[in-house]
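Section 5.1 Outputs to date
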Amino acid sequence: RRAIELGVNTFDTSVNYVRFLPLRLGPACPPPRPTTTTTHPCAPPGSLTQRPCRSQGTEEMLGAALEGVDRSSIVLSTKWSPDDWEGDAEANSAALRQSVANSLAALRTDYIDVMYFHGLPAASYDTVVSGGLYATMAALRDEGVIRHIGLTTRFVDEPGQEVCEIALQRNPEL
């Protein structure tokens, strides 16, 4: 709220940004154990990645903080990660739609201003974007659920930002 009072009107979050502290929104999820081989207690069985508890994400925190704020006065962006890609375009289209629906609920809004393909490696571009998920994002945009489609990169992994060149050549509207 204080950020809005100070004139901040753009907020970027992600379902994968997690706060491991108790919130009033639900039971606390314990912090990850201090080892790289142990998964987070809320992660699916066999997963090597940390997955947030739905009650512990920054989307929920932001949604609660923005409750009662004139929605047209702020810009909200969030992300879908290629780490969530399972290889089957139809199943992933449904998963992407569900992820957006979850984000809408968490953010307590009926639209997202910018929905990003988050941290997309160049090697995965064709599989993820051309593999049907860009079409799903475009359909969500056409339905008014998201307003703009974006792309973020993993600078640490790809300092040359190759995925940006690929996107500009193949999907300049992205």
